[in-house]
Amino acid sequence: MPAAVSCAGRRNTEADFVGIASLKKQHARQVTAFESWAARGAWSEFHSEHYDWWAFPYDQPSSHGFAYVVYEGDVAAMKADPAFLAAYLRGAELLLRSWGWHMGEARELRREEIDDPAAQRWARWPVRLHKATSSLLLFGCDDAARSAIVYGRLLLTRRFKFSYGGRDLSALFTHPPIPLEAAAAASKVKAAPASKRGLG
Prior knowledge:
This protein has one domain. By secondary structure, it is mostly helical. The strands form two sheets. It has a two-stranded antiparallel sheet. A two-stranded antiparallel ribbon has the order 3-4. The protein starts with 19 loop residues before the first helix and ends in a 13-residue tail after the last helix. It has nine helices and four strands; from the N terminus they run H-H-H-H-H-E-E-H-H-E-E-H-H. Strand 1 (101-102) and strand 2 (107-108) form a beta hairpin. It has helices spanning 20-40, 44-48, 52-55, 72-79, 82-98, 126-138, 142-157, 171-174, 181-187, and strands at residues 101-102, 107-108, 163-164, 167-168.
């Protein structure tokens, strides 16, 4: 028999939490939608639809309250399902691809890899990139998080604004909580020294 997976740690016990089973179902439906959009070349759908809360859950309340908030215990329980984890990473890959970024190689997509140049580019939603990156970090998907952070840093060098609702979101990218050397070397974007600073 396989070894039991420990799901110890803080759990979301708020009354408005949708629950892990429901969250996983919503996530699965969303990734199915992502796959459909990508297959049809409908990359603009990634920019116009709303899905951050269940596609990239993390440990901060939102406009939905605590409905989609997850803590370390919830994350451990979700990651114990290999199919969920694969779908979670696939969702992140497709989101970044919608912005013209190759998650696995931490670089911009080449011309021949882009279906729609008008749609597969930065959509000026720093809060979505911040949420997705925060979620990847919480889920321990460090390679994917590094790639997302390198992308954010590239956008900052291009003078894109990284604020939302009066809040500066750039610190996660300028002072990342994990080392970036490998991803930065792959993408040729210079990494700053790692910081112990946590998420905002």
